[in-house]
Write a structure and sequence with these properties.
With 73 residues, this protein is mainly α. The protein has helices at 6-34, 43-70. Helix 1 runs antiparallel to helix 2. It is elongated. It starts with 5 loop residues before the first helix and ends with a helix.
């Protein structure tokens, strides 16, 4: 007995995965924006900024993957 149909399950996974990826992207984007005034010579600041950029790339890959799975891209 299935609780959800296959179609509904795919939509559920797409919304959850795309939502997490989009929130991840926006959070790292806002963190990168807030760190723009920090001292760029400090290695800790550079590491954090690099981490924010990597996080944005991961979020972007997640959103693109969901859109490609759904056939939008």
């Amino acid at each position: 007995m299935n609780i959800l149909s296959d179609h509904a399950f795919h939509w559920f996974l797409m919304i959850v995965t795309g939502g997490v990826a989009a929130v991840w992207f926006v959070y790292d984007l806002s963190s990168l924006y807030r760190s723009r005034t920090a001292d760029r010579g400090d290695p800790d600041v550079r590491d954090r900024r690099f981490g924010y950029v990597v996080g944005m790339l991961i979020g972007l890959i997640g959103v693109i993957g969901v859109l490609r799975f759904h056939g939008v891209l």
